[in-house]
UniProtKB/TrEMBL annotation:
GO terms for molecular function: nucleic acid binding; RNA-DNA hybrid ribonuclease activity. InterPro entries: RNaseH-like_sf (IPR012337), RNaseH_domain (IPR002156), RNaseH_sf (IPR036397). Residues 1-81 form the RNase H type-1 domain. It comes from the Eukaryota. This is Gypsy retrotransposon integrase-like protein 1. Pfam families: RVT_3.
């Protein structure tokens, strides 16, 4: 209904200004196609809005409706988002300045250069290769380095990290990491760097397709594990009714009841005495079998 209200407001303003020819642009295909007559208006809530716009359309010599794709309507979406965030009084005016950038906004970011043109794992790699510390290393830094190298493995020029599951992860520098971020979406790779998660988050923020077309993720963040029970809600409750004052004709005076909490199914049996063997027999006969 909000889309219809916005369309009706725009058409009403054109009527008040006595316009004779009008082109209506909207990003809602449902509203535009219904006003054009290509789609039928079946929702009872939308029919009054549809009839109101059609009635105002008779005030124009010519009126046409056009759909605008959402990726071509970014300015209007930005203004709509801005208006919902600000509280403006009726007589208050706000000036909005718009700057046009050479590149798209998702490309406007700062490239982080590595200090001294050396990868962040340079000290670890050099210690594994030569057994020497970097110049100016403090005692605390040397102790930390010796503790870190236990989890690393050097195979030729390639540095790997040992995981708890004995997997070797290839260590990457910042330049290689930027190239792999785009490739990792095509499959699963055994690469690792300390800022992997934060770099991927920044890449998604700059990726236009991720922001515009990607669906919400409803997949579990980790692999699902099987439960020991076949059904999570499979549960039975057992209860014994106290001895009744008058015995039954067969001498039974105890009632054993079992209830399935999920299906609400009830199993009932009467016994002369309720002992261990009787309960086991009841479970096997009436619940399991």
């Amino acid at each position: 209904m909000a889309k219809y209200e916005a369309c009706a407001t725009g058409v009403l303003m054109a009527v008040e200004h006595q316009a004779k020819k009008l082109k209506v642009f909207g990003d809602s295909a449902l509203v535009i196609y219904q006003l054009c007559g290509e789609w039928e208006t079946c929702d009872s809530k939308l029919i009054p809005y549809h009839n109101y716009v059609i009635e105002m359309s008779e005030c124009f010599d010519k009126i046409t409706f056009y759909t605008v794709p959402k990726d071509e309507n970014q300015t209007a979406n930005a203004l709509a988002t801005l208006s919902s965030m600000l509280r403006v009084n009726q007589d208050q005016e706000i000036t909005i300045h718009v700057w046009h950038q050479v590149k798209m906004a998702y490309y406007q970011h700062l490239d982080r250069d590595e200090a001294d043109d050396k990868p962040w794992y340079h000290d670890i790699k050099e210690y594994l290769r030569k057994g020497a510390y970097s110049q100016g290393a403090t005692e605390n830094g040397k102790t930390t380095l010796r503790r870190l190298i236990v989890a690393f493995f050097l195979s030729g020029p390639v540095l790997y990290k040992r995981c708890t599951d004995l997997t070797l992860l290839h260590y990457m520098d910042d330049q290689e990491a930027k190239e792999i971020i785009g490739e990792v979406r095509e499959g699963i790779f055994g690469y690792y760097w300390t800022k992997m998660e934060s770099d991927c988050c920044q890449h998604v923020k700059r990726c236009l397709k991720c922001q515009v077309y990607a669906n919400n993720i409803h997949v579990a963040p980790s692999a699902l594990h099987n439960l020991t029970s076949p059904w999570p809600f499979s549960m039975w409750g057992l209860d014994i009714i106290e001895p009744i004052e008058l015995k039954a004709s067969n001498g039974h005076r105890f009632i054993l009841v079992a209830i399935d909490y999920f299906m609400k199914w009830v199993e009932v049996a009467s016994y002369a005495n309720v002992i261990k063997s009787v309960v086991v027999k009841f479970i096997k006969k009436d619940i399991i079998c």
